[in-house]
Amino acid sequence: MRVHPSADRLARTDQLAWKIAEVAVDPVAVPDDVTDMIVNRVIDNAAVTVASLTRRPAVAARAQALTHPLAAGSTRHGATVSGVAPTTRVTPEWAAWANGVAVRELDYHDTFLAADYSHPGDNIPPIVAVAQHTGRSGADLVRAIATGYEIQVDLVRAISLHAHKIDHVAHLGPSVAAGLGTLLGLPTDVVFHAVGQALHTTTATRQSRKGEISSWKAYAPAFAGKVAIEAVDRAMRGETSPTPIYEGEDGVIAWLLDGPDARYVVPLPGPGEAKTAILDTYTKEHSAEYQSQALIDLARRLHRERPDLADPANVATIVIHTSHHTHYVIGSGANDPQKYDPSASRETLDHSIPYIFAVALQDGGWHHVDSYAPARANRPDTVALWQKVTTTEDPSWTARYHSTDPAEKAFGGRVEITTTSGEVVVEEIAVADAHPLGARPFARAQYVEKFRTLAAGVLPDDEVERFLDVAQRLPDLRPDELGGLTVVAPREVLDAVRTPEGLF
């Protein structure tokens, strides 16, 4: 893929957006292991959704969605809003908005890292919303989610957005549009225009993940899902997109990515080739940025084996040797003073490996609420230890980060701790314990346990069991059962937090 001047009149069939659309319309069967993993990720999304139901961004997004009910007399079904009984339906783009924020708020669901970053589970809320709205079956939904994951992962393998300070949701808009094309059985040209519009409307800067990180970090993927639904609606009505969106002389590659001389190779599946990219993704055991997962596991191991290192009086320096991405995005290489600021937002602290490593070393674990509490961040001994943690790029870890060999690809690092007595403690870890190649890989039992753990005290026991039953029957769900693919919280839980009123 490269830039073409307008005089080339690049054929649609030679454009990346068309190739993506061809993958979406390919009726290839979904392998059993892919179906099983899709069920796992639906459960995973629900787990982190439950834990977010009373967090302010999720409450605000839910309030917005509930002001957009399905129009009276509509022949469609509407979509459910997380936390609310399925008898309440809203338009699908607003359901995608509310449910996407709830999924993303805690930074606690799945991930894929390669040339760029991604949380491919962000495809699920908008695709589920449209499936409910249009009366699709569980099998239809599975096929669509497989497409969403495939397209996002393939784009992330090939195109670095962060190198040009573009937020990673610019890969999510096209993947959602493609997934919806699969779900609805749309023609190739309709999917093509939806992909182009979705990309055009989801390119934004990475300032949402830099400096003083705000709640927009949770909203950005939900926005991409929402506008992808709207793009599909317009394309279905015959409206077209900027063409060629990627390859044009004023397009994305030329002006937002590597420039007029750039070349990219995007590894899409060929005709009849199964969409298996979800199997290359991985979820989080801990509610923190994925590149911190393995280092949290290393810190909790050190907590058990060397409890003396939790006391800042015993530590001179802690240096984490890691990949370029980890050093410059969540490490001291970012040059963000906020990453060492006890008053920083939760969103900033979960992108600070110095903070995360210090707390995990002291506590021997990580909690999605307690580990970010202001009192925890301001504890004097934690602040003292935290300030002694720095990162540095190690080319060998950068190479492993970018490796295409699953056995070599890694997101960890080597930690060197120099004590005040002069001892040097060196430990390393390649992948998180929950990673498929880790010490305790996540399988169905772990996904279910994560859901049960995060639902405790939020959902009644019978609701926990009801949802798990529906989710694990996903491939066989009838259209009239798909509305049950949501979580319903008691009214008093949802009313526990209020946000100011807005326009709607």
UniProtKB/TrEMBL annotation:
Entry EC number(s): 4.2.1.79
Catalytic function, reaction form: (2S,3S)-2-methylcitrate = 2-methyl-cis-aconitate + H2O
Domain MmgE/PrpD C-terminal: 286-474
Alphabetical keyword list: Lyase
Molecular functions (GO terms): 2-methylcitrate dehydratase activity
Sequence ranges assigned to domain MmgE/PrpD N-terminal in this UniProt record: 15-263
A matching Pfam family: MmgE_PrpD_N
UniProt family annotation: Belongs to the PrpD family.
Quaternary structure note: Monomer.
Protein name: 2-methylcitrate dehydratase
